[in-house]
Design a protein that fits this description.
The protein has 246 residues and is α+β, with helices and mostly antiparallel strands. It is built from four helices and twelve strands. Helices cover 19% and strands 26% of the residues.
Length: 246
């Protein structure tokens, strides 16, 4: 059976729209959930049927990026970034107003949702899948504990001021200096703040109005500890031939 992995960790903030309403709402999901589990969550807030709904991903400029067609795939295995829109289409979609500031939101109560036999949760429960698979859940818990212990030990090797190299899955290797180590407000867990040697980052050491370290714009980034290697990583020199000089 093919294995699916998360390209990037933690959470993603996306906009949710439906085929019968023009307004959107913003939601935050963990990238480690499967598309099937995501449909279960969207079923509750949109009224669509998880078994028949289709989810299309649109960029911030409303260009179609992809369709979440594989129920077993992890949300993080798709090229989804913060601010993108998940558009839910379903022939049985219940009409509702998504703008919670104008009308009361339509949501099934937990008790009503549990009584339904056509939901993702009931399907998972009947077939002992996902969180209802005790053996699989125990395995994931053991793997999580091992990763946390490994990260805890690795954190001891990372100190502010050290030269480092980052190797985030799906991204190029980058060099820089460690500027921050610890917990942050924008995401759970520990993070390492890095000032890159080149403007390959996303910030200036601050995120969502909170400053963690100082560096020029686009030179700062935050990386999970396991993707940071501290050592003798001097700045890479870029040599230009005489023919290339202006």
């Amino acid at each position: 059976m093919e294995e699916y992995t998360v390209k990037t960790a933690d959470f993603i903030n996306v906009m949710i729209s439906t085929s019968c309403e023009s307004n959107c709402i913003e939601k935050r999901y963990h990238k480690g959930i499967t598309v099937l589990e995501l449909k279960g969550k969207l079923e509750v807030i949109t009224g669509a049927n998880a078994a028949t709904m289709k989810i299309k991903v649109f960029s911030k400029t409303d260009e179609l990026v992809c369709e979440l067609s594989d129920g077993n795939a992890l949300l993080g295995s798709y090229p989804i970034d913060d601010g993108m829109r998940l558009h839910v289409e379903d022939q049985f979609l219940l009409r509702k107003q998504l703008d919670e500031f104008q009308v009361e939101k339509f949501e099934l109560s937990q008790e009503e949702y549990d009584k339904r036999s056509d939901t993702v949760r009931s399907f998972l429960k009947r077939n002992r899948l996902g969180k209802f698979d005790e053996e699989e859940m125990k395995k994931k818990q053991v793997e999580k504990e091992k990763e946390e212990e490994l990260e805890k030990e690795h954190m001891k090797t990372i100190t502010v001021g050290s030269r480092c190299q980052t190797q985030v899955p799906g991204q190029p290797t980058r060099r820089g200096a460690v500027k921050f180590v610890g917990s942050v407000k924008f995401s759970p867990g520990n993070w390492v703040g890095v000032q890159y040697d080149e403007p390959l980052g996303k910030n200036d050491g601050s995120v969502q109005g909170v400053r963690y370290f100082e560096c020029p714009p686009k030179y700062g980034g935050f990386v999970k500890p396991l993707y940071v290697q501290v050592g003798d990583f001097p700045e890479e020199e870029i040599n230009f031939d005489d023919d290339d000089e202006l």
